[in-house]
Amino acid sequence: MSEMRRVTAIRNGTVVDHIPSGRAMQVIRLLRIDTDRSTPVSLVMNVPSDKIGRKDVLKIEDRELSHKELDRLALIAPSASIAIIRNHAVAEKMMVELADDLVNIARCSFSNCITINDREPLPQRMRVVNRDPLEIRCYYCGRGQDIEELIEKIL
Ligand SMILES: [Zn+2]
């Protein structure tokens, strides 16, 4: 088995492809992959991609992503493609899709927003007003979110 093959082949798990270059670590955090534990994770960074210029690719063994995780992943990697691997073969392919309305995906990053007030429990709601470049506004206070900050506030 060649060195390359050893890195890329997994028996069961998930391949997340077309992550924007440099964002793979955010994906690892989002998926709460405990890097101290025994979950084998392969990370390839900054490889050329026809689709998005440069990309990161993440392979996670023995883990299949849920739809809930995919909805969150869309904030970090809106054009990611997902392959579920079972017994060395691609069993399922999924595309990440960023919805127009993001309900309970991330918390508004403005501290004086009504949604931050715990006595007034409201669902977290964001509206995607533009996709390229990505522009997201809070449904309640109407303010535009800094995407990097929003990623840190994913629920
Ligand atoms: Zn707000």
Secondary structure: number of strands = 8
How are the strands ordered across the major sheet? 2-3-1-4-5
> Would you tell me which CATH topology of the largest domain applies?
Alpha-Beta Plaits
Identify the CATH architecture of the largest domain. Answer: 2-Layer Sandwich
- Quaternary status: single chain
Q: CATH superfamily assignment of the largest domain?
A: Aspartate carbamoyltransferase regulatory subunit, N-terminal domain
Poorly predicted residue ranges: 1-7
Which percent range describes the beta-strand content? 25-35%
Order of helices and strands: HEHEEHEEEEEH
* Backbone shape: globular
The hetero compounds bound to this protein are: zinc ion
In round numbers, the mean pLDDT is 89
Structural class: alpha+beta
User: In percent, how helical is the residue content?
Assistant: 10-25%
CATH class assignment of the largest domain: Alpha Beta
Task: Describe this entry's structure for a reader.
The protein is an alpha+beta fold. It has 2 domains: 3-95, 2-Layer Sandwich (Alpha-Beta Plaits), CATH 3.30.70.140; 101-152, Roll (SH3 type barrels), CATH 2.30.30. It contains 4 helices and 8 strands; from the N terminus they run H-E-H-E-E-H-E-E-E-E-E-H. It has helices at residues 3-8, 24-30, 67-76, 147-152; strands at residues 13-20, 41-49, 53-61, 81-86, 89-95, 101-103, 125-131, 134-138. The strands form 2 sheets. It has a 5-stranded antiparallel β-sheet, covered by helices on one side. A 3-stranded antiparallel β-sheet has the order 6-7-8, with no helix packed on it. Strand 2 and strand 3 form a beta hairpin. The protein is globular. Residues 1-7 have low confidence and may be disordered. The chain binds zinc ion.
